Amino acid sequence: MPYPRAFYYMLGVVGVILIGFWPSYFAAGPTTVPWQFHAHGMAASLWVLLVTGQCWTSQHKNQLQLHRSIGKASLFLFPFLIGGLAAITSLQSKNWVAREPLHLLYGPGFMIGTMVAMAAYVTVYYRALKYRRKVWVHAGYMLSTPLILFESPFSRAASFVFPPFHVNGPAEFYKVMASIEWSEVLVLMFIAGVWWRVGERAKPFLVTAAFVVVEMLAMGFASDFEVLRRFDTVIGHLPSATVVLTGFAIGAATSWLGWQAGKTVKAPAGAVPQPA
After folding, report:
1. Which end of the chain is more exposed for a tag (fewer CB within 10 A), N or C?
2. How much is the pTM?
3. Alpha-carbon distance 201 to 244, whole Å?
């Protein structure tokens, strides 16, 4: 099976998430954060655990049936993952409309960056389902999903672990964007390392790398464009339920279409089918 040490990579991702979100989410009381954080946090955490489970079961022949069952469960989890991201998009835009200081500075960038992340998840997961019988392709796409928003927990962890990224007030909000961009650079370096190790088989990671580059540009420069500031205002005035249900519908359509597309793609001779 490909990527035999992927399980340890996923444990590292889990560790970064716990460090990055422990003060503001995991250690906070359930009523101290907006419901949008819970919608995204629970779905994203379950997704990371699901991929971690997939990594473990894929390396043990006696666990392949469990691997397939977990994969099928991803079909039902994915709409909640995209719906949770849509909830965050709605909250970001409402913070922009409310002129919250950080979002007043970077609001459109945050919104467009999250939308790019949603598009990345949809593209990568669809292709993971479509090519689920081609183990290297399928594994590459599934393992690249934690990289799409890796900047979120890592930049938060960096903000209180590394002194150069400490933010002591609004005058230092620029450090927030700096930590995000450096996190994205680390993701691209990691993908370059994967490519160096496995070559052409790492093509799925390059798809994710392209989205990460777009995400970097969106986060850094979207706030400079008036049309995007107006678009952020429009999203901010929409009911959150409308935005979330739209995201959920997109996720559900991705699961359905990806699963159907995978039925027509044949596995290479001797390959072990991987439903998801």
Report:
1. N
2. 0.93
3. 35
